[in-house]
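TASK: fixed-backbone design
INPUT:
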């Protein structure tokens, strides 16, 4: 019988979450490296290079690969012969490990959890509580699987109760384009089939814990129906041409994972959950001999990929930019931003709207400014700001007319596509929408020279900052005429891939 000490359990949870914050799983990095090697789309190849370089920088600097350090999901398998110290409370132990990991002064992680989930939505301050799933199994060990799941990919989870005669592959292929690019492809698709509604979702989430092995499967061939499905979905999803960051390209997913469970004869529950370019998960065991240990990958394990700004990138001085100047930008243009910009995301936009409705003066003047949709990690040491990658801009679509029309904002910076309502507002006000690479948060933060909170400090990571940046790399995603790179790029590459067979 194994006796698990409370201190060892908590330390192992905390150490594991710190570890995955800055170290990608090696199999995922190698898969992204292969995607970079075969990518033919210049825009997608540049995005993949930024993701790979950011990953290596985060590992070397021991800082988060993404500013969204996720909601913690824990799968616990408790051996029936395991005993915990007297008074142990499993959920409290997990949450104490989360608390210690996310408030570590040497590498603070962003607290993103709000409670209650509807209404006030106040940040809990330490990223607790975790979402915990527990199962009793034979044996004398505890197996722990941890994931830190970013909101951008989690928001793209989908569930359907299909007719048993439905073509499941077709459902996946039709569903993927509706997700947009907010889940930061390339990533991994987790698919749960069977059981009941909640079981299918759980299967999809747990499937994402498995290592990337699609290339090995392609080489040896499928051994059962699930492996056949994996290969078919992998090929057909990549043939969609969505590509890295939704810019159009060869690789949209680097693997497809499937778990299944028997279901009712009248049912076919199917869940789909994507993992993003900041894939973070780990599995370890506790046997009573002490806390778990984690070995960092070697620097030589990363692909030999470098990144430099495009030599044709347009330098932009945000302190002198004019509306006439932005009308010359076209979708796909690379820019290097220097000067001052504001930041803001969901909670800040909502508060701005409420203040306007009450007739209250705003603490910030947005006229002819650019706003960056970001919730940064707190800085450490001599950092100006921690990792500060973009959040999904689509969530701000409902506020776009207000920001451009009433407040005179000139431009926005985020990730992923904009919806029809936002694009129409951009076109109407001759504004512009730019994107930074989701999954390159540490790389982006190196362009930030100064940062200060200028409004709504009580919102924590959702406060409004003023950043001063130097050569921050971005791309024009929607120009002043309403043309969108997220519409043009995938459409072009879907045709190209169909002409060459669509294989990746």
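OUTPUT:
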């Amino acid at each position: 019988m194994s006796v698990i000490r409370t201190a060892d359990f908590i330390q192992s949870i905390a150490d594991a979450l710190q570890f995955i914050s800055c170290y990608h799983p090696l199999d995922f990095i190698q898969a992204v490296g292969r995607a970079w090697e075969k990518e033919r789309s210049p825009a997608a190849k540049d995005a993949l290079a930024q993701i790979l370089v950011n990953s290596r920088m985060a590992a070397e600097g021991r800082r988060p690969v993404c500013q969204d350090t996720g909601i913690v999901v824990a799968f616990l398998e408790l051996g029936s012969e395991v005993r915990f110290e007297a008074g142990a409370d499993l959920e409290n132990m997990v949450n104490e490990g989360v608390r210690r990991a996310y408030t570590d002064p040497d590498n603070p992680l962003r607290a993103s959890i709000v409670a209650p989930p509807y209404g006030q939505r106040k940040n809990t301050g330490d990223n607790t509580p975790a979402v915990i799933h527990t199962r009793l199994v034979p044996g004398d060990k505890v197996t722990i699987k941890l994931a830190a799941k970013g909101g951008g990919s989690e928001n793209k989870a989908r569930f359907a109760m299909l007719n048993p005669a439905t073509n499941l592959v077709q459902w996946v292929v039709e569903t993927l384009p509706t997700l947009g690019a907010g889940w930061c492809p390339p990533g991994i698709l987790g698919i749960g089939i069977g059981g009941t509604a909640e079981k299918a979702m759980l299967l999809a989430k747990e499937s994402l814990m498995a290592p990337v092995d699609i290339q090995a499967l392609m080489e040896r061939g499928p051994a059962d129906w699930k492996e056949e499905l994996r290969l078919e979905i992998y090929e057909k999803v990549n043939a969609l041409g969505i590509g890295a960051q939704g810019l159009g390209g060869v690789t949209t997913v680097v693997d497809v994972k499937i778990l299944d469970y028997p279901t009712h004869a009248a049912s076919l529950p199917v869940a789909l959950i994507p993992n993003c370019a900041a894939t973070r998960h780990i599995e370890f065991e506790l046997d009573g001999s002490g806390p778990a240990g984690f070995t960092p990958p070697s620097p030589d394990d990363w692909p030999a990929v470098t990144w430099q700004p495009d030599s044709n990138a347009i330098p932009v001085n945000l302190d002198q930019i004019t509306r006439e100047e932005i009308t010359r930008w076209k979708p796909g243009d690379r820019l290097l931003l220097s000067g001052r910009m504001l930041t803001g995301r969901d909670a800040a936009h909502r508060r701005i709207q409420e203040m306007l409705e009450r007739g209250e003066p705003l603490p910030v003047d947005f006229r002819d400014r650019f706003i960056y949709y970001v919730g940064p990690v707190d800085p450490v040491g001599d950092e100006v700001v921690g990792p500060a990658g973009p959040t999904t801009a689509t969530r701000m679509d409902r506020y776009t007319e207000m920001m451009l029309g009433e407040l005179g904002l000139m431009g926005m910076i985020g990730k992923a596509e904009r919806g029809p309502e936002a694009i129409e507002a951009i076109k109407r006000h001759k504004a512009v929408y730019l994107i930074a690479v989701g999954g390159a948060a540490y790389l982006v933060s190196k362009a930030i020279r100064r940062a200060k909170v200028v409004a709504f400090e009580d919102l924590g990571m959702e406060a409004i900052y003023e950043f001063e940046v130097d050569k921050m790399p971005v791309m024009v995603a929607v120009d002043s005429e309403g043309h969108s790179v997220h519409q043009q790029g995938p459409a072009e590459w879907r045709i190209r891939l169909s002409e060459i067979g669509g294989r990746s």
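COMMENT: The CA atoms of residues 160 and 270 lie 5 Å apart.
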